[in-house]
Amino acid sequence: MEVEPRRADADGSDEDGAEITRLCRTLVPLAAAGKHAEAASTYRWVTRASIGAPLRYRDHALRLEFCALTGNEHTGLDLLSLLDGVGDHADAVGRLDFFAAAALLTRRLTETGYGEIRFVLNGPYDGLSLNRLHRRMRAAAFVEAEELDEGDPTGYFAAHAERKMTAKPVTEFVPLLPSALPRVPILPPPDLSAEELVTRAEIHNHRCEPEEARACLAAIGTVADGIAPRLAELRAIFFQDGDTEERLRRAATGFRRQGDEIRFLLNQCWLGLWLVFDDQAETGVALTTVAAARLRAGTDERAACWGEYWLAHVLSGQGRTAEAYEALRRGAERAHKAGDPLLHGTLLCLEASLRNGDGEDPGTTLELAQAATDAFIVGNVGEKAVEAVEQVRIAYERTGSLDELDVFVEHLLSTLPAGGPERLRGHLRQLRALSLIGTGRFAEAVDDAYASLGVAASKGKDNAEHWYVLVTALHGAGRYDEVLDVAPRAIELLAGLPDWGHRCRWMYADAYRALGESSRAFNEYAVLAEILEESGDTGHSYISVSMAAAEQLDLLGYGANAADFYAQAADAAVAIGGGYVAATCRNAATLSRLRSGDLDAALTALDVAESAVHAVETETVPAREHLVAQLDHVAAHVLSAAGRVREAARRALRAAETFHRIGEAESARDVDLLLEQILLGEQK
What SUPFAM superfamilies does its record include (predicted)? Predict the structure, then answer.
């Protein structure tokens, strides 16, 4: 039976990193032996254990190799962020291994069609395409090897680097999370001609599949004059920069030279749109309007529809929505007659999107978006089907009909053909997970959340919401160990969304708390408290987080520090009129001072707590009685420790009577026990 590797110590200690290193060395061998579940659980463990640990580049290199050789190249991209500091690392072999592993990973990404992706990092490699980064990493590895091999005729390190960088995958795919799927390949089939590649890129363009289109374009070298204008136009569209207008115009000249009037007019439609959004609105609108009109008057039905589509884009951007709707209606009618579900759905979906954005009648919008969804399912166009369903969701939310949205989602899930678009199926499961979470059915939501993330990630479409929904479902279901595996990635993606980001950080900290890892829990609570304070949010969230941090410090035996956190929470509560919460914090701070062994500080804190409790007047009678009984309980502890037994017994007796009267039997039992100890002289 395969089991999870042992957890790090509860306090997060692993000072020499020996266990992390040992397990990193097992990653590739486990995968090669077919022990995929064990390899995945080991990878998750070392990833978790490495958070906050000193940088050990040899370990990270082993993780990079594992990702590169098990179909998880895109997961490994996150580790490349460590490149920013590798040059300053003291361990020369560690630098070599990391550069070699980075070269291996970027080689695999380039081989699978992602070489044109730009690498984003605040450092010397920022903005490089992955294929260029591969060349840089390969060169850097050999530089390190040359220095290490100096005086060694065998060239051991150069051979070592070459072997690392040219390693072959050991297995097709190791799923690192439940329901994870291999990345969908975007490379076109081999041996296609340049014209076939251009045609495929055009199809991908219409299907809203930009990465696949770029992969086709990247595979094209020199081309014949006959398809040069088409290639120039596509490259202008998919690799936009300051020369885009000029390249579009060159393509137009080529179409004119070839006598291809349809392509010329479609080019003018797109050029007009580009000019509008390049602050040349008057010229752009005129260009697209004339070209669309000429296409409309022609006999090419599909070209006429695309003309209406681009015209609607241009008109809506100028606030001429009524004319845009009319263009889309004309186009949709012709597309329906032409029997083109992709084009028909595209026109319907754009109108639904515009109507949602303009606040138009949601009933009409729903009809358009649902019809677009049906068309995209027929055409098996996953990305556009997701877009259409999003317009359905927005329209239902505008009407407040979330129950009807649930019915719509369930109907689609039950009727979607087996060979239908998986991207749509994944999105529908995401919507169902959100609904289940909204009704507190977290355990039921987990499978949907995992599945939707798996499908989206396989297409490179996973986003902050996918990860946040999964963390929320796992936390609500009490699957805290899994929260620790996925929350760091969610937190990273939620950097620009403070509400979700703060909630996710709280769930991350709370998972450590629930698993008894108090040191890690405190660290995460403290980080969140600091973030909230720096952002000026010292309200309810800050108070709750500070109290949670204090509780963990108490468990760790740091009573004085816990009291400080309680005091901060109390001050924040007073500032927002939360006298009851402030008094509760003062009571807790008093006990923390006592646990720290500082009796004088505890007696001082008790005086502050007395004042805080007696200042509370706005609560209901039962709530105030609870608070006073809590204070009496705390006072009994402190006074007994100070040797003031008679006072301590009196306060304990009063607390017990109050707790019994208001029905808090468990608290009453605790105080009865304390009273017994005081009277027997066991509590000092």
Answer: TPR-like
Buried b (16+ CB within 10 A) or exposed e, 416-428: beeebbbbbbbbb
For 511-545, b/e burial (b = at least 16 CB within 10 A) is bbbebebbbbbbbbbbbbbebbeeeeebeebbbbb
Helix (H, G, I), strand (E, B) or coil at 320: coil
Per-residue tokens: 525: 């609570």
CA 512 to CA 555: how far, in whole Å?
Answer: 13
Report d(CA 426, CA 419) in Å as an integer: 13
- Would you state the structure tokens that stand for residue 99, as one six-digit string? 């550069």
Question: CA 604: distance to chain centroid?
Answer: 47
Question: At residue 186, does pLDDT exceed 80?
Answer: yes
Residue 36 vs residues 3, 48, 174, 181: alpha-carbon distances, Å: 12, 18, 6, 13
57-71 confidence digits (pLDDT tens): 999 999 999 999 999
* Residue 144, token pair as written in the block: 């390190």
Tokens of 528: 């969140």
The C-alpha atoms of residue 683 and residue 425 are separated, in whole angstroms, by: 64
Residues 6+ apart with CB under 8 A from 670: 633
pLDDT digits (tens, 9 = 90+) for 349-401: 999 999 999 999 999 999 999 999 999 999 999 999 999 999 999 999 999 99
Question: pTM here?
Answer: 0.91
Report the SS3 class of residue 576. Answer: coil
Q: What is the pLDDT of residues 509-542, one digit of tens each?
A: 999 999 999 999 999 999 999 999 999 999 999 9
> Which of 265, 270, 223 lies closest to 247 in space, CA to CA?
270
Collapse the DSSP code of 286 into the 3-class scheme (helix H, G, I; strand E, B; otherwise coil) and give the result: helix
89: which 2 tokens?
């690392």
Is the backbone of residue 616 left (phi > 0), alpha (psi -120 to 50) or beta? beta
**341/258 Cα distance (integer angstroms):** 30
